[in-house]
Write a structure and sequence with these properties.
Helix content: over 70%
Number of strands: 0
Keywords: Antibiotic resistance, Cell membrane, Cell shape, Cell wall biogenesis/degradation, Hydrolase, Membrane, Peptidoglycan synthesis, Transmembrane, Transmembrane helix
Main location: membrane
Shape: globular
Distance between the termini: 19 Å
EC number: 3.6.1.27
Structural class: mainly alpha
InterPro entries: UppP
Largest sheet: none
Radius of gyration: 18 Å
Strand content: under 5%
Family: Belongs to the UppP family.
């Protein structure tokens, strides 16, 4: 793998990790388009580990929230402690399902066909949700709705259950947790923030798991330099993507992501039919 390919992977990971478009799907498609022939286990581990850059981007952008949770652990900020508990509750379903089903998911669902169909279905769900909100006379954007401070443990667990659906490649963890947050009454702004914060735990756990499991194989195949470059590029692109999306959703709906998902899903199926990707 050359430096350009590492940079491309880092950009794709960072730009798509927190948008509701599936970073896993984009990475699988990118690897196929670039015809990367390295060890599948090492390549998967690299893709997961460079998402550490995306985690750092959210840590820097949402540092005040993270600080309140640290203060909560110290016993000086009850609201921060409540948020931390809710995030842990929301993480638990994915942790359980991941431990029980990860190997089956990788064996049967980690392929480009699954990604393409998931993109299209997810796009349809987004468009249907936006249309439903419009019929209800509700805003598809902005801060109308409950704040993150009002989230109850039961609602947090509901978001966590919906996050499990995103284990199907192409679905998008961000999509399911954002829709889950709005489903339980959070405003778009609060649902997006909760999704980002939940990603710190979920993605952090996945990074540690894959680094422990296949880290040595990854470093043998690619070296520390590739990991470092991919992580830095991922951080920069994720920082830009998060800043853009938060600003965009203040005035616009999620519909653009629905149309994008449907378009890329159709294009991917066309490429598959011609044997240009696998």
């Amino acid at each position: 793998m050359n430096l350009l390919e590492i940079i491309i992977l880092g950009i794709v990971e960072g730009l798509t990790e927190y948008l509701p478009v599936s970073s896993t799907g984009h990475l699988l498609l990118t690897e196929s388009l670039l015809n990367m022939s390295q060890s599948k286990e090492a390549l998967d581990a690299l893709a997961v580990c460079i998402q550490g850059g995306a985690i750092l981007a959210v840590l820097s952008l949402y540092y005040p929230r993270v600080k309140t949770m640290v203060e909560g652990v110290r016993g000086t900020n009850p609201a921060g402690f409540k948020l931390l508990v809710n995030l842990i509750l929301a993480f638990l379903p994915a942790a359980v399902v991941g431990l029980c089903c990860a190997s089956l998911i990788k064996e049967y669902l980690f392929n480009t066909y699954t990604v393409a169909y998931s993109w299209i279905v997810g796009g349809g769900v987004i468009l249907a949700y936006c249309a439903w909100r419009a019929r209800q006379g509700k805003s598809n954007e902005g801060s109308k709705g409950d704040s993150i401070e009002t989230l109850t443990p039961g609602k947090a667990l509901t978001v966590g259950v919906l996050q499990c659906v995103a284990m199907v490649p192409g679905t998008s963890r961000s999509l399911m947790t954002m829709l889950g947050g709005m489903f339980v009454g959070l405003s778009v702004e609060a649902a997006v923030e909760f999704s980002f914060l939940l990603g710190l735990i979920t993605l952090g756990a996945a990074t540690v798991h894959d680094a422990y499991k296949d880290g040595a194989l990854m470093l043998e195949a690619f070296g520390w330099e590739a990991l470092a470059v991919g992580t830095v590029v991922s951080w920069l692109s994720a920082w830009l993507a998060v800043k853009w999306m938060v600003s965009y959703l203040q005035k616009h709906s999620f519909a653009v992501f629905g149309w994008y998902r449907i378009a890329i899903g159709i294009v991917t199926l066309a490429l598959l039919s011609r044997g240009l990707v696998h």
